[in-house]
Design brief:
Helices cover about 75% and strands about 0% of the residues. It has about 300 residues and is mostly helical.
């Protein structure tokens, strides 16, 4: 009897071990198989998005004779910096670079200043019309800005604001303001109000509590919105092309880049070199702020 029980126990133990092995094997392979289409899709997306950038940079370092060759190569046989010299030495490059920097930074700083006050008022205070205000902000964010070109042009013309950099600054400020308010409002909502209340109990004013307690915690949100505003204003072409007509010295880099031609046609090497230099500041800003961008956008989308 005991021998039968022992054999039965061994058989059951063997079955259990076999079942464990059979169920344990797919656990390591099935997730990998399931993730394979996602990984392939991610790789394809990255390649499709980065290939134009690579081709732009590679063309900027390729000699002119190789650019116009009937058999283009994935990697240039020889490299040159002549195109960058042509781009930097072109008329107006330094002036238009300064204009773009001035307009972009002014619009971003102004949007942050106004949006910070508006987002704090919506997230912390209770006042009549708060929900309607946020609804209008969302509507302004969803509206295509290209549809407002004619009204903005007419207003600028009637107020004698055409061909002026402050006009572009105000336009870019209006373009980036709704998104900045939405993100900062969600970010402020994630900060416990008890922190500011404790500071007020200790003698701080409401403004002082915000400045010493809440504002340092807003760094990721401020950097995320700053990056969005910077890229939006830096790359904007339509309004800069329509609002700056007569005063060509007030043009920005995107408009100047679109007219980068010589008497024989488009100089593709110099154009790609100028495009690379144009994209470089945005890339540098993103690399500097990338640590805070993800957390800023995630925190801004949590509450609201």
């Amino acid at each position: 009897m005991s021998t039968t029980r022992m054999s039965t126990t061994r058989i059951n133990t063997t079955r259990i071990n076999t079942a464990r092995i059979s169920t344990a094997r797919p656990r390591g392979t099935r997730p990998r198989i399931r993730r394979l289409p996602l990984n392939v899709a991610a790789v394809v997306t990255v390649v499709v998005c980065l290939f134009p950038v690579y081709w732009m940079v590679a063309t900027a370092f390729t000699p002119t004779r190789d650019i116009q060759s009937d058999n283009p190569r994935f990697l240039p046989e020889s490299w040159t910096l002549d195109h960058f010299g042509t781009a930097v030495g072109a008329d107006g490059f330094g002036l238009f670079w300064r204009n773009s920097i001035l307009v972009t930074l002014s619009a971003v700083l102004l949007a942050l200043l106004v949006a910070l006050g508006a987002a704090y008022a919506v997230a912390r205070m209770r006042w009549k019309g708060r929900r309607q205000f946020m609804l209008m902000v969302f509507i302004a964010q969803m509206a295509p800005w290209e549809s407002l070109i004619i009204p903005v042009y007419i207003i600028s013309r009637d107020t004698d604001m055409l061909d002026r950099l402050p006009t572009l600054t105000l336009v870019y400020f209006m373009m980036t303001l709704p998104f900045t308010i939405v993100v900062l409002r969600g970010f402020i909502a994630t900060i416990p109000p008890e922190l500011e209340e404790s500071a007020q109990v200790d003698g701080c004013t409401r403004l002082g509590a915000f400045r010493h307690i809440a504002f340092p915690l807003l760094a990721p949100g401020l950097m995320a919105t700053s990056l969005f505003g910077y890229i939006t204003a830096w790359n904007e072409f339509t309004y800069a092309n329509f609002l700056i007509i007569k005063q060509q010295d007030n043009r920005t880099l995107p408009v100047w880049l679109s007219s980068f031609q010589n008497i024989f046609g488009t100089d593709w090497g110099a154009t790609m070199a100028a495009s690379t230099l144009f994209a470089l500041p945005a890339l540098v800003v993103f690399l500097l702020l990338q640590r805070h961008v993800t957390s800023g956008f995630a925190a801004g989308a949590v509450k609201g």
